[in-house]
Amino acid sequence: MSREKRLILLSLFTGVALMLVKFMAYFITESNAIFSDAAESIVNVVASSFAFYSIYLSAQPKDENHPYGHGKVEFFSIFVEGGLIFIAGSIILVKAFYALIAPGPITNIMEGLWLILSTAVVNFGIGEYLKRRGVALRSLTIEADGKHLQIDAISSIGLIAGLYLMKVTQMAWIDTALSAGLGSYILWSGYKMLRKSISGLMDESDVAVMQEVVDVLGKTRKEDWIDVHNMRIQRYGRELHVDCHLTIPKYYTLTKVHDVISDFEENLNNGLGMPTELFVHADPCMPQCCHYCNVKDCPIRSEEYTKHIEWTSVNLPKNMKHFREC
């Protein structure tokens, strides 16, 4: 079994156990705020189940129907998780509104709080572990699952503080206010996850990934990589697909051009530390490129090298050679 599957199973089994503990706390207290926390745990379990399937599917090799692989399913997994969180937040807000109309008694507050505290500690610890492993493994699904567990833990801590305040002040409305606040927070968290998944499915530019690529190219830059532009990056799960134009000396032979592009691809793959598929279009240099071309002993140079152009996340995606900006 892969590392990703083991991590998701850890999240799933933990989620089931903590969900049972939270519902136990709700049944002994009858607190709307604790019910809100328990309801979100159902989402954790369902989301982890779907995440397990998405990890399995994203690991499948490319085939005739999916030439880019199955990695996009991770964005769909985040969409499902975010949608479930959004629905849970809506249900919690409806129940909080109902509690304003027909409030009920709350009992055994301290016993319930100790149970919720234990779930918060476990959730935050496992969430942090999953988040770190998700970043290390380049898995959006595991990282999102870890963040979700930490959101759950933070909301539980707020719940504990509020219910303790209610016990001290004897103000019963605090329970309803907490439930409404948690519901709103959960709605916002669901919206952010939905937004992230949609941006990935729509191939929205990922500034962080682009900057990572720019950093690698800056460190490995060769003198005959005269110009890189029209760079586009798509993320498919743990893999990147990069399209770009690379300007190289026009007097190079076809074999030399192939070697330069292969070197370009190898440096980018090694530097990023994740599988990267590149489609590099070779452009011949032009006289206008000479003043920022650093090729030594160039037989066709028409102008001295006078300007170094820094490659950035702003100028690499533009569909133009850099001399147009000089």
Features:
326 residues; mainly alpha; Alpha-Beta Plaits
Describe this entry's structure for a reader:
Helices cover 63% and strands 9% of the residues. The chain is built from eight helices and three strands; from the N terminus they run αααααααββαβ. The longest helix is centred in the middle third of the chain and has 30 residues, at 140-169. The N and C termini lie far apart (53 Å). The model has no long low-confidence stretch (mean pLDDT 82).
What is the beta-strand fraction?
A: 5-15%
- Note the overall shape: elongated
**What value does the Rg take, in angstroms?**
27 Å
Gap from first CA to last CA: 53 Å
The CATH class of the largest domain turns out to be: Mainly Alpha
Biggest sheet overview: 3 strands, mixed
Counted by DSSP, the helix tally is 8
Number of strands: 3
Domain Cation efflux protein cytoplasmic: 211-285
Family: Belongs to the cation diffusion facilitator (CDF) transporter (TC 2.A.4) family.
GO biological process, one term: intracellular zinc ion homeostasis
Domain Cation efflux protein transmembrane: 9-202
